[in-house]
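Module 6 notes. Inverse folding takes a fixed backbone as the condition and produces residue identities as the prediction. Think of it as a translation problem where the source language is geometry and the target language is the twenty amino acids. Below is one complete input and output pair. Work through it position by position during the lab.
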């Protein structure tokens, strides 16, 4: 059996101290396998952002163990955590955050260049991803020349440019109209299935959540199946 792309065991996270302390996660457990799409559906304030920040190594848990691709991450120093984020974890947000002065191809190539790849390899990978996501002809267009759905597909391609194990998405279709949302979600799903990525996708869209492999929520600091 393959190893979990993300494994969170007994995770606890508390903000503040003493009487003002707020415990957001307590004894939380979550495992996501390669190729699996997991929807995170939780009300505001339940701990969704905290969970994504912990999974993305942007925060450290106060308790428990977190592994990405079998690597225990709690004890990693800042440099190793940064490298893990760069190479093993991809992020997609509600707003694309593309660099406006760069073309679609250049936006996707950039993280590969930062990771030490060659320009030729980075551009080849960018073009492959743009074709895979159905927007190959838009490679030389800047974000202002792309539709909202095209911009988000470029953001998805950028997130997986370095072939990460884990994709974390926070409302990736939340800024799109329903028909465009479906197109972007279908492209994201196809990419996850074809590459063996593991994906944790936070969404308030119950129709999209129902199309994923399973749905989890956060109640009382625990991660629960819906």
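Target side of the pair, the amino acids:
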């Amino acid at each position: 059996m393959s190893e979990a792309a993300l494994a969170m065991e007994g995770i606890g996270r508390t903000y503040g101290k003493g009487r003002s302390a707020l415990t957001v996660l307590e004894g939380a457990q979550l495992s996501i396998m390669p190729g699996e799409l997991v929807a995170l559906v939780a009300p505001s304030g339940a701990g969704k952002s905290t969970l994504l920040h912990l999974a993305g190594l942007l925060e450290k848990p106060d308790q428990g163990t977190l592994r990405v691709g079998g690597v225990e991450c709690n004890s990693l120093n800042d440099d190793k955590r940064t490298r893990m984020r760069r190479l093993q974890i991809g992020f997609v947000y509600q707003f694309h955050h593309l660099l406006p002065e760069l073309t679609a191809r250049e936006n996707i190539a950039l993280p590969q260049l930062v990771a030490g790849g060659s320009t030729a390899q980075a551009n080849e990978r960018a073009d492959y991803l743009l074709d895979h996501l159905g927007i190959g002809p838009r490679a030389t267009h800047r974000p202002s020349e792309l539709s909202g759905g095209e911009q988000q597909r470029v953001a998805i391609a950028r997130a997986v440019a370095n072939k990460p194990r884990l994709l974390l998405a926070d409302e990736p279709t939340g800024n799109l109209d329903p028909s465009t949302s479906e197109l972007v979600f279908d492209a994201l799903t196809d990419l996850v299935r074809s590459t063996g990525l593991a994906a944790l996708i936070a969404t308030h869209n119950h129709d999209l959540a129902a199309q994923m492999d399973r749905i989890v929520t956060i109640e009382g600091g625990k991660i629960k199946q819906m």
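Reference fact for the lab report: The chain has seven helices and ten strands.
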